[in-house]
Write a structure and sequence with these properties.
Structural class: alpha/beta
Number of domains: 1
Helix content: 40-55%
Radius of gyration: 17 Å
CATH superfamily: P-loop containing nucleotide triphosphate hydrolases
CATH topology: Rossmann fold
Shape: globular
Order of helices and strands: HEHEHHEHEHH
Strand content: 5-15%
Oligomer: single chain
CATH class: Alpha Beta
Number of strands: 4
Length: about 160
Amino acid sequence: MSVQQKATNVHWHAGNLTRAERFASLKTAGCTLWFTGLPSSGKSTIASALEQVIVQRGRHCYRLDGDNIRLGLNKNLGFSAEDRAENIRRIGEVAKLFADSGSVALTSFISPYRADRDAARALHEKDGLPFLEVFVDTPIEECEKRDPKGLYKKARAGEIKGFTG
């Protein structure tokens, strides 16, 4: 998805520290691990457990979770294809900033569209930052059993239009 730059009087300010200098000082490099999969597949659970392990080992790490992001940064977005694309675009940008800072960015989003995930990957690759996509491959029957929000039930009842799952 290509987004038009509306503000024309802005320029990237590189600062006084290069990424290489930052990574050398931190003795680590940043990256993004992008967890994708059906609702209730375990994306957030895996990302939360991994965040704990990474931080306990002394690495900087931050988890960006779909629900948490939609309660703040992306609270103005719904679930249309256009809004989903913008949701993932914004998350790709934020994850890239974390990775650039030397942190491990863990993202857990349904992110159903390949083009949106590819755009997030390209954003990282353009700046030489590692981006690893992890598909949490859980059978839909298991996702329905877990379903803490009752989304599958609501979707089957016709209460949720355009549900991924």
